[in-house]
Amino acid sequence: MLSRARILGLLLLPLLAGPDARAQQPGDLVNRGEYLARAGDCIACHTAPEGRTFAGGRAMPTPFGTLYSSNITPDRETGIGKWTTEDFYKAMHTGRFPDGGLMYPAMPFASYTKVTQADSAAIFAYLKSIPPVNQRNREHDLRFPYSNRQLILGWRTLFFTEGEYKPDPSKSDEWNRGAYLVEGLGHCGMCHSPINALGGTSQSDAFKGGLIPMQNWYAPSLTFNREAGLGDWSLKDIADLLKTGVSARGVVYGPMAEVVHNSLQYLTDEDTNAMAVYLKSIAEPTTRPAASSTALPTTESSLLISLGKTVYDARCASCHGAQGEGQPPHWPPLANNQSIEMESAVNAIRMVLNGGYPPGTEGNPRPYGMPPFAGLLSDNEVAAVVSYIRTAWGNRGAPVSAREANELRSVPLN
Which residue from 138, 156, 373, 380 lies 20 to 30 Å from 244 (Cα-Cα)? Predict the structure, then answer.
Protein backbone atom coordinates (compact mmCIF):
# COMPACT_ATOMS: atom_id res chain seq x y z
CA MET A 1 0.00 0.00 0.00
CA LEU A 2 1.32 3.45 -0.86
CA SER A 3 1.84 5.91 1.97
CA ARG A 4 0.20 9.33 1.90
CA ALA A 5 3.61 10.94 1.44
CA ARG A 6 4.40 8.63 -1.46
CA ILE A 7 1.06 9.36 -3.14
CA LEU A 8 1.54 13.11 -2.70
CA GLY A 9 4.93 12.75 -4.30
CA LEU A 10 3.36 11.00 -7.24
CA LEU A 11 1.32 14.09 -8.02
CA LEU A 12 4.50 15.52 -9.48
CA LEU A 13 4.66 12.60 -11.94
CA PRO A 14 1.87 13.03 -14.50
CA LEU A 15 0.38 9.85 -15.87
CA LEU A 16 0.58 11.22 -19.40
CA ALA A 17 4.32 11.30 -19.04
CA GLY A 18 6.65 13.03 -21.44
CA PRO A 19 10.22 12.16 -22.45
CA ASP A 20 11.58 13.48 -19.14
CA ALA A 21 10.04 10.44 -17.39
CA ARG A 22 13.04 8.39 -18.52
CA ALA A 23 15.28 10.58 -16.36
CA GLN A 24 13.63 9.49 -13.11
CA GLN A 25 15.61 7.68 -10.47
CA PRO A 26 14.97 3.90 -10.31
CA GLY A 27 13.22 4.13 -6.96
CA ASP A 28 10.84 6.77 -8.25
CA LEU A 29 10.13 4.70 -11.34
CA VAL A 30 9.28 1.62 -9.27
CA ASN A 31 7.00 3.57 -6.93
CA ARG A 32 5.28 5.21 -9.83
CA GLY A 33 4.87 1.83 -11.48
CA GLU A 34 3.25 0.48 -8.31
CA TYR A 35 0.75 3.32 -8.42
CA LEU A 36 -0.01 2.69 -12.10
CA ALA A 37 -0.38 -1.05 -11.50
CA ARG A 38 -2.96 -0.17 -8.86
CA ALA A 39 -4.74 2.06 -11.37
CA GLY A 40 -4.78 -0.83 -13.84
CA ASP A 41 -6.09 -3.25 -11.17
CA CYS A 42 -3.54 -5.85 -12.25
CA ILE A 43 -3.86 -7.71 -8.97
CA ALA A 44 -7.52 -8.55 -9.59
CA CYS A 45 -6.83 -11.02 -12.39
CA HIS A 46 -3.24 -12.02 -11.76
CA THR A 47 -3.72 -13.15 -8.16
CA ALA A 48 -5.77 -16.26 -7.42
CA PRO A 49 -7.81 -16.52 -4.22
CA GLU A 50 -5.38 -17.59 -1.48
CA GLY A 51 -2.60 -17.42 -4.08
CA ARG A 52 0.68 -15.54 -4.20
CA THR A 53 0.51 -11.95 -5.41
CA PHE A 54 0.76 -11.66 -9.21
CA ALA A 55 1.58 -15.38 -9.57
CA GLY A 56 -1.51 -15.93 -11.75
CA GLY A 57 -3.68 -19.01 -11.82
CA ARG A 58 -6.97 -17.23 -11.24
CA ALA A 59 -9.81 -18.93 -13.10
CA MET A 60 -11.79 -16.64 -15.39
CA PRO A 61 -14.92 -18.37 -16.66
CA THR A 62 -16.15 -17.19 -20.06
CA PRO A 63 -18.88 -18.37 -22.45
CA PHE A 64 -16.11 -20.10 -24.40
CA GLY A 65 -14.52 -21.99 -21.52
CA THR A 66 -12.20 -21.12 -18.63
CA LEU A 67 -9.09 -19.01 -18.96
CA TYR A 68 -6.38 -18.86 -16.28
CA SER A 69 -4.38 -15.72 -15.63
CA SER A 70 -0.62 -15.78 -16.08
CA ASN A 71 2.30 -15.39 -13.70
CA ILE A 72 3.65 -11.83 -14.00
CA THR A 73 6.21 -12.03 -11.21
CA PRO A 74 9.90 -11.74 -12.25
CA ASP A 75 10.55 -15.46 -12.00
CA ARG A 76 12.80 -16.31 -14.94
CA GLU A 77 11.39 -19.80 -15.49
CA THR A 78 7.63 -19.35 -15.06
CA GLY A 79 7.07 -15.58 -14.98
CA ILE A 80 8.25 -12.56 -16.92
CA GLY A 81 11.79 -12.51 -15.57
CA LYS A 82 13.31 -12.90 -19.04
CA TRP A 83 11.17 -10.18 -20.60
CA THR A 84 12.59 -6.80 -21.53
CA THR A 85 10.91 -3.43 -21.10
CA GLU A 86 10.16 -3.54 -24.83
CA ASP A 87 8.64 -7.02 -24.52
CA PHE A 88 6.28 -5.79 -21.81
CA TYR A 89 5.26 -2.75 -23.82
CA LYS A 90 4.59 -5.01 -26.80
CA ALA A 91 2.30 -7.17 -24.66
CA MET A 92 0.42 -4.14 -23.33
CA HIS A 93 0.29 -2.31 -26.65
CA THR A 94 -0.27 -5.10 -29.17
CA GLY A 95 -1.60 -8.07 -27.18
CA ARG A 96 1.28 -10.30 -28.27
CA PHE A 97 3.84 -12.30 -26.32
CA PRO A 98 7.54 -11.60 -26.87
CA ASP A 99 7.66 -14.46 -29.41
CA GLY A 100 4.75 -12.93 -31.32
CA GLY A 101 2.11 -15.31 -29.97
CA LEU A 102 -1.43 -14.02 -29.63
CA MET A 103 -2.94 -13.22 -26.24
CA TYR A 104 -6.59 -13.96 -25.55
CA PRO A 105 -8.53 -10.70 -25.15
CA ALA A 106 -9.40 -11.52 -21.53
CA MET A 107 -6.12 -9.65 -21.11
CA PRO A 108 -7.54 -6.15 -21.77
CA PHE A 109 -4.96 -5.14 -24.35
CA ALA A 110 -7.72 -3.40 -26.32
CA SER A 111 -7.69 -0.86 -23.47
CA TYR A 112 -4.05 -1.15 -22.40
CA THR A 113 -2.92 -0.27 -25.92
CA LYS A 114 -3.74 3.32 -24.92
CA VAL A 115 -1.16 3.26 -22.12
CA THR A 116 1.91 5.39 -22.89
CA GLN A 117 5.27 3.73 -23.32
CA ALA A 118 6.62 5.63 -20.31
CA ASP A 119 3.84 4.36 -18.07
CA SER A 120 4.28 0.82 -19.38
CA ALA A 121 7.99 1.01 -18.52
CA ALA A 122 7.16 2.16 -14.99
CA ILE A 123 4.73 -0.72 -14.44
CA PHE A 124 7.31 -3.19 -15.72
CA ALA A 125 9.95 -1.72 -13.39
CA TYR A 126 7.58 -2.27 -10.48
CA LEU A 127 6.77 -5.86 -11.48
CA LYS A 128 10.50 -6.59 -11.79
CA SER A 129 10.95 -5.39 -8.20
CA ILE A 130 8.46 -7.75 -6.54
CA PRO A 131 9.41 -11.20 -5.18
CA PRO A 132 9.54 -13.85 -7.92
CA VAL A 133 7.19 -16.81 -7.60
CA ASN A 134 7.99 -20.07 -9.34
CA GLN A 135 4.53 -21.17 -10.45
CA ARG A 136 3.81 -22.49 -13.90
CA ASN A 137 0.90 -21.08 -15.84
CA ARG A 138 -2.12 -23.31 -16.00
CA GLU A 139 -3.37 -24.40 -19.41
CA HIS A 140 -6.59 -22.77 -20.54
CA ASP A 141 -9.67 -24.98 -20.73
CA LEU A 142 -11.49 -23.71 -23.82
CA ARG A 143 -13.97 -25.53 -26.03
CA PHE A 144 -13.16 -26.20 -29.66
CA PRO A 145 -12.74 -24.17 -31.82
CA TYR A 146 -11.96 -21.36 -29.33
CA SER A 147 -8.83 -23.23 -28.21
CA ASN A 148 -7.31 -22.36 -31.61
CA ARG A 149 -5.45 -19.10 -30.97
CA GLN A 150 -5.36 -18.25 -34.66
CA LEU A 151 -9.04 -17.37 -34.43
CA ILE A 152 -7.96 -14.37 -32.35
CA LEU A 153 -6.73 -12.80 -35.59
CA GLY A 154 -10.35 -12.47 -36.69
CA TRP A 155 -11.36 -11.03 -33.33
CA ARG A 156 -8.54 -8.47 -33.54
CA THR A 157 -9.61 -7.42 -37.01
CA LEU A 158 -13.14 -6.74 -35.78
CA PHE A 159 -12.58 -5.31 -32.31
CA PHE A 160 -8.99 -4.16 -31.77
CA THR A 161 -7.47 -0.82 -32.74
CA GLU A 162 -3.85 -0.43 -31.71
CA GLY A 163 -2.61 2.94 -30.51
CA GLU A 164 -1.65 5.03 -27.49
CA TYR A 165 -4.12 7.54 -26.10
CA LYS A 166 -4.02 10.85 -27.92
CA PRO A 167 -5.18 13.84 -25.84
CA ASP A 168 -8.09 15.82 -27.23
CA PRO A 169 -6.79 19.39 -27.60
CA SER A 170 -10.33 20.76 -27.32
CA LYS A 171 -10.67 19.35 -23.79
CA SER A 172 -9.04 20.27 -20.50
CA ASP A 173 -6.00 18.50 -19.09
CA GLU A 174 -8.23 17.13 -16.33
CA TRP A 175 -10.72 15.69 -18.84
CA ASN A 176 -7.89 14.08 -20.81
CA ARG A 177 -6.40 12.59 -17.64
CA GLY A 178 -9.80 11.10 -16.80
CA ALA A 179 -10.27 9.73 -20.32
CA TYR A 180 -6.81 8.15 -20.21
CA LEU A 181 -7.58 6.39 -16.95
CA VAL A 182 -11.13 5.30 -17.83
CA GLU A 183 -10.44 4.19 -21.40
CA GLY A 184 -6.90 2.91 -20.85
CA LEU A 185 -5.44 1.73 -17.56
CA GLY A 186 -8.81 1.42 -15.82
CA HIS A 187 -10.21 -0.61 -18.77
CA CYS A 188 -13.72 0.30 -17.55
CA GLY A 189 -15.21 -0.64 -20.89
CA MET A 190 -14.40 -4.31 -20.28
CA CYS A 191 -17.40 -4.52 -17.95
CA HIS A 192 -19.45 -1.44 -18.79
CA SER A 193 -19.88 -2.30 -22.48
CA PRO A 194 -22.12 -4.96 -24.06
CA ILE A 195 -20.28 -8.06 -25.22
CA ASN A 196 -21.54 -9.78 -28.35
CA ALA A 197 -21.53 -13.47 -29.26
CA LEU A 198 -17.92 -13.21 -30.46
CA GLY A 199 -16.73 -11.81 -27.15
CA GLY A 200 -16.16 -8.33 -28.53
CA THR A 201 -17.60 -4.83 -28.27
CA SER A 202 -18.05 -2.38 -31.11
CA GLN A 203 -16.72 1.12 -30.57
CA SER A 204 -20.21 2.55 -31.02
CA ASP A 205 -21.40 0.56 -27.99
CA ALA A 206 -18.57 1.58 -25.65
CA PHE A 207 -19.71 2.20 -22.06
CA LYS A 208 -23.35 1.40 -22.86
CA GLY A 209 -23.59 -1.25 -20.15
CA GLY A 210 -23.74 -5.02 -20.22
CA LEU A 211 -24.04 -8.27 -18.33
CA ILE A 212 -20.66 -9.48 -17.08
CA PRO A 213 -20.32 -12.97 -18.60
CA MET A 214 -20.53 -15.91 -16.21
CA GLN A 215 -20.76 -13.64 -13.15
CA ASN A 216 -24.37 -12.56 -13.60
CA TRP A 217 -23.84 -8.99 -12.47
CA TYR A 218 -24.94 -6.13 -14.68
CA ALA A 219 -22.49 -3.25 -15.22
CA PRO A 220 -24.73 -0.24 -15.92
CA SER A 221 -24.35 2.07 -18.85
CA LEU A 222 -22.10 5.02 -18.13
CA THR A 223 -23.65 7.00 -20.98
CA PHE A 224 -27.38 6.33 -20.62
CA ASN A 225 -28.77 8.19 -17.63
CA ARG A 226 -31.62 5.78 -17.10
CA GLU A 227 -28.98 3.44 -15.73
CA ALA A 228 -25.96 4.94 -13.92
CA GLY A 229 -27.41 8.44 -14.13
CA LEU A 230 -23.99 10.05 -13.73
CA GLY A 231 -24.99 13.10 -15.72
CA ASP A 232 -27.15 14.15 -12.76
CA TRP A 233 -24.50 13.44 -10.13
CA SER A 234 -22.15 16.05 -8.75
CA LEU A 235 -18.45 15.54 -9.44
CA LYS A 236 -17.95 15.01 -5.71
CA ASP A 237 -20.55 12.22 -5.57
CA ILE A 238 -18.93 10.42 -8.52
CA ALA A 239 -15.43 10.83 -7.08
CA ASP A 240 -16.58 9.69 -3.63
CA LEU A 241 -18.12 6.54 -5.11
CA LEU A 242 -14.91 5.73 -6.99
CA LYS A 243 -12.64 6.45 -4.03
CA THR A 244 -14.59 5.06 -1.09
CA GLY A 245 -17.34 2.86 -2.56
CA VAL A 246 -20.11 5.03 -1.07
CA SER A 247 -21.53 8.46 -1.79
CA ALA A 248 -24.68 10.44 -1.16
CA ARG A 249 -26.09 8.96 -4.39
CA GLY A 250 -25.19 5.29 -4.21
CA VAL A 251 -23.11 2.36 -3.01
CA VAL A 252 -21.04 -0.17 -4.98
CA TYR A 253 -21.43 -3.93 -4.55
CA GLY A 254 -20.33 -7.03 -6.43
CA PRO A 255 -17.46 -6.80 -8.93
CA MET A 256 -17.31 -3.00 -8.67
CA ALA A 257 -16.68 -3.28 -4.93
CA GLU A 258 -13.61 -5.38 -5.75
CA VAL A 259 -12.41 -2.73 -8.21
CA VAL A 260 -12.70 -0.01 -5.58
CA HIS A 261 -11.03 -2.18 -2.94
CA ASN A 262 -8.09 -3.29 -5.10
CA SER A 263 -7.60 -0.24 -7.27
CA LEU A 264 -9.56 2.99 -7.13
CA GLN A 265 -9.21 3.70 -3.43
CA TYR A 266 -5.45 4.07 -3.93
CA LEU A 267 -5.69 6.76 -6.61
CA THR A 268 -4.98 10.38 -5.79
CA ASP A 269 -7.88 12.76 -5.37
CA GLU A 270 -6.71 14.50 -8.54
CA ASP A 271 -7.05 11.29 -10.54
CA THR A 272 -10.45 10.26 -9.17
CA ASN A 273 -11.69 13.81 -9.78
CA ALA A 274 -10.39 13.62 -13.35
CA MET A 275 -12.23 10.34 -13.87
CA ALA A 276 -15.38 11.96 -12.49
CA VAL A 277 -15.03 14.87 -14.94
CA TYR A 278 -14.72 12.49 -17.87
CA LEU A 279 -17.51 10.14 -16.76
CA LYS A 280 -19.93 12.99 -16.20
CA SER A 281 -19.13 14.39 -19.64
CA ILE A 282 -20.02 11.19 -21.53
CA ALA A 283 -23.41 10.76 -19.83
CA GLU A 284 -26.46 11.64 -21.88
CA PRO A 285 -29.11 14.06 -20.58
CA THR A 286 -31.60 12.52 -18.19
CA THR A 287 -34.80 11.16 -19.64
CA ARG A 288 -37.27 9.49 -17.37
CA PRO A 289 -38.32 6.06 -18.67
CA ALA A 290 -41.87 5.52 -19.75
CA ALA A 291 -44.16 3.90 -17.22
CA SER A 292 -43.53 0.17 -17.17
CA SER A 293 -45.82 -2.03 -19.19
CA THR A 294 -46.43 -5.53 -17.96
CA ALA A 295 -48.12 -8.55 -19.43
CA LEU A 296 -49.45 -9.53 -16.01
CA PRO A 297 -53.24 -9.30 -15.60
CA THR A 298 -54.34 -6.44 -13.39
CA THR A 299 -55.39 -8.71 -10.52
CA GLU A 300 -52.13 -10.68 -10.59
CA SER A 301 -50.11 -7.48 -10.81
CA SER A 302 -51.93 -5.99 -7.84
CA LEU A 303 -51.39 -9.12 -5.74
CA LEU A 304 -47.69 -9.14 -6.65
CA ILE A 305 -47.19 -5.52 -5.62
CA SER A 306 -49.24 -6.01 -2.46
CA LEU A 307 -47.10 -8.96 -1.42
CA GLY A 308 -43.99 -6.97 -2.30
CA LYS A 309 -45.02 -4.10 -0.06
CA THR A 310 -45.65 -6.52 2.81
CA VAL A 311 -42.18 -8.03 2.41
CA TYR A 312 -40.59 -4.60 2.04
CA ASP A 313 -42.23 -3.18 5.16
CA ALA A 314 -41.12 -6.21 7.18
CA ARG A 315 -37.61 -6.69 5.82
CA CYS A 316 -36.36 -3.51 4.15
CA ALA A 317 -38.03 -0.35 5.47
CA SER A 318 -36.00 -0.18 8.69
CA CYS A 319 -32.88 0.65 6.64
CA HIS A 320 -34.16 1.97 3.32
CA GLY A 321 -37.11 3.95 4.71
CA ALA A 322 -40.85 3.55 4.42
CA GLN A 323 -40.83 5.65 1.25
CA GLY A 324 -37.53 4.34 -0.11
CA GLU A 325 -35.69 7.47 1.02
CA GLY A 326 -32.76 5.51 2.47
CA GLN A 327 -30.21 6.74 4.98
CA PRO A 328 -27.24 7.84 2.82
CA PRO A 329 -24.44 7.09 2.60
CA HIS A 330 -24.77 3.78 4.45
CA TRP A 331 -28.17 2.68 3.14
CA PRO A 332 -28.82 4.02 -0.34
CA PRO A 333 -32.17 5.50 -1.36
CA LEU A 334 -34.34 3.27 -3.52
CA ALA A 335 -36.81 5.92 -4.64
CA ASN A 336 -35.81 7.71 -7.87
CA ASN A 337 -32.78 5.48 -8.08
CA GLN A 338 -31.78 4.85 -11.69
CA SER A 339 -29.99 1.61 -10.81
CA ILE A 340 -33.30 0.22 -9.52
CA GLU A 341 -35.13 1.15 -12.72
CA MET A 342 -32.64 -0.38 -15.17
CA GLU A 343 -33.99 -2.73 -17.80
CA SER A 344 -31.92 -5.48 -16.20
CA ALA A 345 -33.10 -6.40 -12.71
CA VAL A 346 -30.19 -8.79 -12.11
CA ASN A 347 -28.39 -6.62 -9.55
CA ALA A 348 -31.51 -5.89 -7.51
CA ILE A 349 -32.47 -9.58 -7.39
CA ARG A 350 -28.94 -10.63 -6.43
CA MET A 351 -28.76 -8.09 -3.63
CA VAL A 352 -32.03 -9.35 -2.13
CA LEU A 353 -30.90 -12.97 -2.43
CA ASN A 354 -27.24 -12.68 -1.46
CA GLY A 355 -26.85 -9.33 0.28
CA GLY A 356 -23.39 -7.86 0.28
CA TYR A 357 -21.00 -5.23 1.52
CA PRO A 358 -19.43 -2.22 -0.12
CA PRO A 359 -15.62 -2.34 0.03
CA GLY A 360 -13.70 -1.43 3.15
CA THR A 361 -11.69 1.66 2.24
CA GLU A 362 -9.82 4.41 4.03
CA GLY A 363 -12.79 6.69 3.44
CA ASN A 364 -15.28 4.04 4.58
CA PRO A 365 -13.37 1.69 6.92
CA ARG A 366 -16.46 0.15 8.53
CA PRO A 367 -18.90 -0.45 5.70
CA TYR A 368 -22.55 -1.17 6.42
CA GLY A 369 -23.78 -4.27 4.64
CA MET A 370 -27.04 -5.86 3.59
CA PRO A 371 -27.96 -9.32 4.88
CA PRO A 372 -28.90 -12.13 2.48
CA PHE A 373 -32.54 -13.12 2.25
CA ALA A 374 -32.21 -16.21 0.06
CA GLY A 375 -32.91 -18.47 3.04
CA LEU A 376 -35.82 -16.38 4.30
CA LEU A 377 -37.78 -15.50 1.18
CA SER A 378 -39.34 -17.73 -1.46
CA ASP A 379 -38.87 -17.06 -5.16
CA ASN A 380 -42.33 -15.49 -5.23
CA GLU A 381 -41.47 -13.20 -2.31
CA VAL A 382 -38.15 -12.17 -3.87
CA ALA A 383 -39.87 -11.38 -7.15
CA ALA A 384 -42.61 -9.49 -5.33
CA VAL A 385 -40.33 -7.26 -3.26
CA VAL A 386 -38.04 -6.49 -6.21
CA SER A 387 -41.10 -5.70 -8.34
CA TYR A 388 -42.41 -3.43 -5.60
CA ILE A 389 -39.11 -1.56 -5.27
CA ARG A 390 -38.91 -1.12 -9.05
CA THR A 391 -42.41 0.33 -9.34
CA ALA A 392 -43.06 2.19 -6.05
CA TRP A 393 -42.44 5.87 -5.18
CA GLY A 394 -42.41 6.95 -8.81
CA ASN A 395 -39.87 4.34 -9.93
CA ARG A 396 -40.60 3.12 -13.44
CA GLY A 397 -38.91 -0.24 -13.66
CA ALA A 398 -40.70 -3.36 -14.83
CA PRO A 399 -41.84 -6.16 -12.49
CA VAL A 400 -39.80 -9.37 -12.33
CA SER A 401 -40.88 -12.98 -12.19
CA ALA A 402 -40.29 -15.78 -9.70
CA ARG A 403 -38.48 -17.63 -12.46
CA GLU A 404 -35.91 -14.82 -12.72
CA ALA A 405 -35.36 -14.97 -8.97
CA ASN A 406 -34.95 -18.75 -9.07
CA GLU A 407 -32.39 -18.62 -11.90
CA LEU A 408 -30.14 -16.36 -9.82
CA ARG A 409 -30.21 -18.41 -6.62
CA SER A 410 -27.40 -20.72 -7.66
CA VAL A 411 -25.00 -18.37 -9.47
CA PRO A 412 -21.55 -17.64 -7.96
CA LEU A 413 -21.40 -14.84 -5.43
CA ASN A 414 -18.36 -13.10 -6.99
Answer: 373
